[in-house]
Design a protein that fits this description.
alpha/beta; 7-stranded mixed β-sheet; 10 helices; 11 strands; 49% helix; 18% strand
């Protein structure tokens, strides 16, 4: 096991488990988390003994509760652009990783947390999972590729509904719309996720890697163009009064009053 705060990497046979370790902040994605996550996956890519990666969050409450709103609230135009582009780069590194990556989602996976899960090949959820893209409640929109990957995974209707309402949904509804691939009871969750990882790791590794590569190539060109448009949309919204009001209300734990400016 190795730890480069805030990421812990453990290896067991052909399976590596990468844990985001900020439980006191519900594993929220600040720039340090994103950069460390990016670097750890690059490092793991050098270990050809690894055939499957499990990505999870520390603690009982959340996979990843989202972006770190407090950390991003006061960022200027250049700094917020760097942050969003870092997030897209980190998630792209996971998406392009040479072996399958399983997102083990327990508790909350919101905003950037759900976007992180969507960059993985498989998403498995605990029965207690709550997922959603609530960025419209903050006066912004997904910025780490969430709109595009959600369209690829669930279709344009589900993407519109989740992104426009900001609603959170439970594990069973997420399974119904294809947002998650399997749901396991909380008591069995870690064991079931690891068993799934071992089952994939036992398959022919070149064949599994080829499956991942071919499937990704099918959706890649349209998705990359859409992700660029997503960055542009996020940055434009970040400069608005509604964004300031939405994030201020979030930090003050009150309902926002949006003006449309």
């Amino acid at each position: 096991m190795t730890q480069h705060a805030p990421i812990i990497v453990a290896k067991q046979g052909a399976v590596a488990t990468v844990t985001i370790h900020r439980p006191e902040h519900l594993n929220a994605l600040n720039p340090d988390v994103l950069l460390t996550l990016h670097n750890e996956f690059l490092h793991l890519g050098e270990d050809r003994a690894i055939r499957v990666v499990i990505l999870k969050g520390a603690g009982e409450k959340a996979f990843v509760a989202g972006a770190d709103i407090r950390a991003m609230f006061d960022l200027g135009p250049r700094a917020i652009a760097d942050y969003i582009e870092l997030g897209q780069r980190a998630l792209r590194t996971i998406e392009q990783f040479h072996t399958p990556v399983i997102a083990a989602v327990h508790g909350y996976a919101l905003g950037g947390g759900l976007e992180l899960a969507l960059a993985c090949d498989l998403i498995v959820a605990g029965a207690n999972a709550k997922v959603g893209l609530p960025e419209v409640n903050l006066g912004v929109m997904p910025g780490f590729g969430g709109t595009q990957r959600l369209i690829s995974r669930c279709g344009v209707g589900a993407a519109r509904f989740l992104c426009m309402t900001g609603d959170l949904i439970g594990a069973s509804e997420a399974l119904t719309i294809g947002l998650v691939d399997r749901v396991f009871e909380v008591a069995d969750f870690d064991r079931e996720v690891f068993a799934l990882a071992e089952r994939i790791a036992a398959r022919a590794p070149l064949a599994v890697a080829s499956v991942k590569r071919v499937i990704n190539a099918t959706v890649e060109s349209d998705q990359l163009a859409g992700m660029r448009r997503e960055v542009e949309g996020f940055l434009a919204l970040f400069a608005t009064a509604d964004r300031d009001e939405g994030m201020t209300a979030f930090l003050e734990k009150r309902k926002p009053q949006f003006s449309g400016h």
